[in-house]
Design a protein that fits this description.
Helices cover 27% and strands 24% of the residues. The chain is of the alpha+beta class and 764 residues long. 54% of the residues are buried. It has 17 helices and 35 strands. The chain has a 10-stranded mixed beta sheet with strand order 11-12-13-14-9-8-7-6-1-35, covered by helices on one side. It has a 6-stranded antiparallel beta sheet with strand order 15-27-28-29-34-31. Strands 2-3-4-5-10 form a 5-stranded antiparallel beta sheet. The protein is globular, with a radius of gyration of 26 Å.
């Protein structure tokens, strides 16, 4: 790519670059210049910016930066005149497989930078702008002030921080403090555990070796221009080999950052993030929730990328307090946290599919030795980002003296991969990843299915996650049933004959029904009712997200309503994701008011069971940092706007009457459809559907009056009404349908009017 000078770059691409501080090449001063024409994608993203007028004290309320690997958070230092910039990295972990994943493959702390000022800090004014993925603002002290800008560069994983001090704060500079390379997890920590050795520290670098080989280097350097400073820092990690190689890599990246034109670096970083925010759009009248949604997408893109590590409980950020969840949790956390990437049209974040494609080879290690037949897979948790749960750990066996709640982890994760396929219709996802892995996941379960006196297939005791052991456990049965049916469907799609197809048909036909209570609905398992408050919705997977029963079928409604009402009647021990999931469940049950109630209860910072959303849209359970709950709440919003299941695409299926207006663009639905729509006064105004794959389109539209169905050039399309409010349209691959009341037309997305001021996020 040819280098562009400053004048050419600003003139040619105003929408994606910045106005720089001419006096100092070591600092950038302003956000990217706004587009000359109104751009709702940009305006809604910038409006979601979090602001700090109070000094944050830790991960719970601090601004956060990352690029899927390197992470940083800025908050109060150890003294009144310091700031702390915590540094962490998704790949930096131990790899002593003799212990279970949370210890042996534990994420490890790296260290932090301290900015020491001449005066005590008296005020801050910071903005975290998700559109540019940058932190900007000022620090005021008893002696002067300092302007700072910071980003984690999208392409290079390098931290860049510029500071421009007033005269009295000219000496403000960064120092680095390494943290011990030892797990912070105490649960299950063996007495023989030994921390890794102290690092080798020299000027501008910390070289950290690991006892098992490999290690990492943190390198940094400052460049000065007048009184301004530009800090560049990079972390390079290797799981094996000579740690000195990481030193060379880290130093080279820092040198490159400080010798490459800063304007070009910042512009390149912003181009990726601006493109990210233009992939889809969603506007609602509750601007606090709208900003929340934007920041969850920003958080996801900061936390993970396809081809990189999938989300751990902390993402790329290291919590000083509340740091016992040191790895990747697969019994709910990844599955619900990664759910929004599909509907929001961000397949570039799908690290779940890419992780299983790359590290399938590690799945047999979670299978008990007696069942390692080359055809059985399982997934223990916690694991590392390479799906290793520890060399000495396996998930156990149903009905044995080693029963865990890990049996369903892998099959549930395959549902995420299935969603990647249904939203893209990319058959390579089925062929290369889902089909071989799900086949072996169901094969493992099949070892334990047995025929009962009733002629049905039954399962010996397993564990419903975090609740109780039960024979014919609903959690496992729902995943087995979904898995067998999905394998049969996949074989048809791929037009392949598989020797295990008779097994899958038998499971689909004869797997025992779920145990039910006449009043309370579906139970935990045989003879095990849901008798107490339970934060985990494991026994309701069949309702959501597996959608085995659907509200459109009248025969399904009674058991759905009874089961849901019973779970919701006991909320004492619920955590954040319980409310987010309840919101999604009510959305698919045509209960929009309840869906919004549960969503806003959670996002309005209510403290329940010592758990709460935090001011920066993170989430804490007690003192622990957990990423998945707010991300799941973003999926709740998507479920209100678009639903697609069983070949039916529903637009605005569960939007509350409290949101009379709503607008979205390029939300992705099953069938590889991209959907735009607008709603005003409580009624849809128009819908636009683009087909990427030419799949059959059945649309539940909610429009009133006689319809006009045309392509994007205004030409009539062939369509027919199949039920009140439901039509089918012939839409070839690459074609677009615009559906509107006759005599009206469609436009573009809009930022809908606010229905009242609500406080923003951050510490305003």
């Amino acid at each position: 790519m040819p280098r562009l000078d400053r004048r050419h770059f600003i003139a040619a691409t105003v929408a994606t670059t910045a106005t720089w501080t001419v006096a100092s090449p070591a600092a950038w001063a302003a956000p990217a210049a706004r587009s000359r024409t109104p751009d709702p994608y940009e305006s809604t993203a910038r409006a979601a910016a979090m602001n700090w007028l109070r000094l944050p004290t830790g991960w719970q309320d601090a601004p956060f930066l990352a690029n899927g690997r390197l992470g940083a958070q800025l908050y109060k230092g150890g003294t009144a005149n310091t700031l702390k910039l915590m540094l962490s990295h998704t790949e930096v972990q131990d790899h002593r497989g003799q212990w279970r994943g949370g210890i042996g493959y534990s994420r490890l702390p790296i260290g932090y930078f301290t900015l020491t000022l001449a005066g005590d800090i008296t005020a801050v004014d910071w903005t975290l702008d998700p559109y540019d993925a940058e932190l900007r603002g000022t620090v005021t002290t008893t002696r002067g002030s300092l302007h700072l800008s910071a980003l984690v560069h999208n392409d290079t994983s390098t931290l860049l921080v510029s500071t421009r001090p007033s005269q009295a704060e000219e000496a403000a500079a960064w120092t680095f403090q390494w943290l011990p390379a030892a797990t912070t997890r105490t649960s299950g920590k063996p007495p023989e555990y030994t921390p890794n050795p102290d690092p080798k520290v020299t000027t501008g670098q910390v070289q950290q070796p690991l006892l098992a080989g490999g290690g990492w280097t943190t390198a940094w350097r400052e460049r000065r221009a007048g009184t301004s400073r530009l800090l560049a820092a990079h972390v390079a990690y290797a799981a094996s080999g000579d740690v000195a190689k990481t030193t060379d890599a880290a130093r080279a990246q820092v040198d490159r950052a400080l010798t490459t034109d800063l304007d070009d670096q910042v512009a390149r970083h912003r181009r990726w993030w601006h493109g990210f925010h233009h992939r889809s759009f969603f506007s609602v009248p509750d601007k606090r929730l709208q900003a929340f949604y934007v920041n969850q997408l920003y958080k996801l893109a900061a936390a993970t990328r396809a081809g990189g590590p999938t989300i751990s409980e902390w993402g790329p950020w290291f919590p000083e307090i509340g740091n016992s969840w040191t790895a990747v949790w697969w019994n709910l956390n990844v599955q619900i946290g990664m759910a929004p990437i599909h509907g929001s049209n961000h397949p570039e974040l799908d690290s779940v599919t890419s992780t299983f494609a790359k590290y399938e080879k590690n799945l047999p290690t979670s299978v008990p030795a007696a069942y390692r037949d080359g055809e059985s897979y399982a997934l223990g948790h916690p694991s590392d980002w390479q799906l290793r749960a520890g060399d000495t750990y396996d998930v156990g066996a149903p009905g044995s003296n080693h029963v865990s709640d890990n049996f369903g982890n892998l099959t549930w994760a395959m549902h995420n991969v299935w969603q990647a396929y249904t939203h893209s219709l990319d058959t390579s996802i089925l062929r290369d990843t889902l089909f071989p892995i799900l086949t072996n996941a169901i094969t493992f379960y099949a070892h334990f299915l047995h025929e009962g006196p009733d002629g049905k297939l039954h399962l010996p005791p397993t564990r419903s996650p975090e609740y109780a052991n039960a024979a014919d456990c609903t959690y496992d049965l729902s995943l087995i049933r979904w898995g067998a049916r999905t394998l049969l469907q996949t074989a048809r799609i791929l037009r392949t004959n598989h020797p295990k197809e008779p097994l899958w048909r038998d499971i689909a036909a004869r797997l025992t029904p779920y145990a039910e209570d006449p009043k309370a609905g579906v139970m935990i398992g045989k003879d095990v009712p849901l008798a107490d408050s339970h934060r985990h919705h494991s026994h309701l997977l069949w309702l959501y997200p597996l959608r085995e029963r659907v509200w459109d079928r009248a025969a399904d409604r009674d058991v759905m309503a009874r089961s849901m009402a019973h779970w919701v009647s006991m909320q004492q021990l619920w955590h954040g994701y319980s409310y987010a999931t309840a919101s999604s469940m009510y959305a698919v049950m045509n209960e929009p008011e309840k869906a919004l109630d549960f969503l806003t209860f959670f996002t309005d910072l209510k403290v329940v069971a010592d758990c709460a959303m935090t001011a920066n849209t993170m989430y804490r359970e007690g003192k622990n940092f957990a990423l998945e709950s707010p991300l799941a709440a973003a999926q709740s919003m998507l479920d209100m706007a678009v639903q697609s299941h069983d070949g039916v695409l529903k637009v605005f299926p569960s939007v509350s009457k409290r949101w009379p207006d709503a607008s979205f663009a390029s939300l992705r639905a099953q069938g590889a459809f991209l959907v735009d729509a607008d709603r005003a006064g409580g009624v849809p105004r128009w819908i636009r559907v683009h087909s990427e794959a030419g799949a059959p389109l059945t649309l539940e539209h909610g429009l009133r009056g006689e319809l006009s169905v045309r392509d994007d050039r205004g030409r009539p399309l062939s369509w027919r009404e199949t039920a009140p409010g439901r039509i089918t349209i012939r839409l070839p691959r690459g074609a677009t349908a615009v559906i509107a009341p006759k005599g009206s037309s469609a436009s573009g997305p809009r930022d809908v009017p606010s229905l009242g001021n609500r406080p923003g996020w951050g510490l305003p």
